[in-house]
Amino acid sequence: MSYRHPLTALPSHTLFSVHLQAAVEQAALERCGLVVFTIGIQRLDNILRNSNRETVNEVLEYLAHVIQRTVRHSDVVGHEADHCFFVLIKNVREHRVDKVGQELGARLLNLLSGPIPTSSGDCQHVGVSIGMAVFPHDAQTASELLLLCTETANHAKKEEKHRFLASSDRLSIKRNC
After folding, report:
1. What number of CA atoms fall less than 13 Å from residue 15's CA on the CB side?
2. Do residues 17 and 144 lie in contact, with contact meaning Cβ atoms separated by under 8 Å?
3. Peptide bond into 115 cis (omega under 30)
4. Averaged pLDDT, 131-159
5. Are strands 162-166 and 127-135 parallel, antiparallel or unpaired?
C-alpha cells in the first residue's frame, strides 16, 4: 500500500484519511470547523490520446502545485490516482467555516479551470468538479465528510464541466427536485 502519490508525492487517500480523522478529533475538542474538498479532474484521457503520458504528468504536477500554493502550509492536500485531489482546511472558526469554504472553493475552481502551460509550448485544458463538505455542519465523522464531498463533486461533474458545489447546495437541489 502506498501512502504517497508516485508523481506528486502528496498523501494518498489512505494517508489523507488518517490526517482527516486526526483533524476531526482535534476540531471536536477545540470546537472549530474543518472544510474538506474533493477535486475531480476530467479530460486527462483526451490529453493522453492527443499528447503523451509526460504531458499528463506535467498537467498533474501543475494542478498539485496550484492547489498547494492556494492553501495554507498547515492544510493537507492529497492525490488519489490521476483524476482526484483532496484538500483539508483545518482550524477554521466554526462561525466562519461555510464562508471560508465557499470562498476557497470558488478560488480553486477559477485557478484550476484555466489553461495549463506545458513544456511543449501548448496549453492543456481539464474539466474540474469540486465538492465541499464542512465539519461540523454537514457531517460529524471523517468518513462521512469524505464520502459527502466526493458525492458532491460527482454531482457537480454531472451538471457542468467546471463546477464547485457545496454539500449543502447539493442537498437543497435534491430537495427541490
Report:
1. 15
2. no
3. no
4. 92
5. parallel
Torsion of CA 127, 171, 12, 68, to 10 degrees: 60
What confidence tier does 25 reach under pLDDT thresholds 50, 70, 90?
Answer: very high
Other CB atoms within 10 A of residue 165 CB: 23
User: Dihedral of the CA atoms 103, 12, 16, 174 (nearest 10)?
Assistant: 50
pLDDT in tens, 4-21: 998 899 999 999 999 999
CA distances to 5, 13, 127 from 115, in Å: 24, 27, 11
State phi, psi for 164 to the nearest 5 degrees. -110, 135
Q: Calculate helix-pair angle for 13-30, 142-159, nearest 10 degrees.
A: 120
Q: What's the distance, CA 176 to chain centroid? A: 26
Q: Give the C-alpha separation, 166 to 130, whole Å.
A: 8
pTM of the full structure: 0.91
Lowest-pLDDT choice from 10-19, 126-135, 162-171: 162-171
CA distances from 35 to 18, 62, 119 (A): 15, 23, 34
